[in-house]
Amino acid sequence: MAEFDIDLASARVAEQVERTAREADERFARSGPVVGRAESGDGGVRVEVAPGGLLTGITLSRSALRYGSAALAEQILELAQRATRRAGDRMYHQLAPVLGPDDENLKSLGFEPIPEDDVDAEYYGR
Predict the structure, then answer these.
(1) Structurally, how many domains does the chain consist of?
(2) I need a labelling partner for 36 at 20 to 30 A (CA). Which of 45, 46, 71, 107 fits?
(3) Rounded CA gap, 44 and 92, in Å?
(4) Are 87 and 35 in contact (CB under 8 A)?
(5) Residue 126 has pLDDT above 50, yes or no
């Protein structure tokens, strides 16, 4: 039976992790920040989120305020969900070439591609 060299195995794993991190860093350096954006049909409400859904920006027009706070809150939540999906799609397309398209970590983090026939796929011109 062959002996297992833990030091060699650890070195190989560390090298692979370093190479993967370097490739991912290079992709993000070329693309810039990954965000998701969504806006209402009339453009009165715009939201921006980071991958994972952290809200990073909201823009409201005066006309958006005329429907009342409950309707506005509902619209912001809906747009934030859409933007989160878009950010997850963009993150998937950044990391899938590095990690592999079937990587379970991508899916577990919510980074999944939006199907081509989905209206949100058209948003980013794919």
Answers:
(1) 1
(2) 71
(3) 29
(4) yes
(5) no
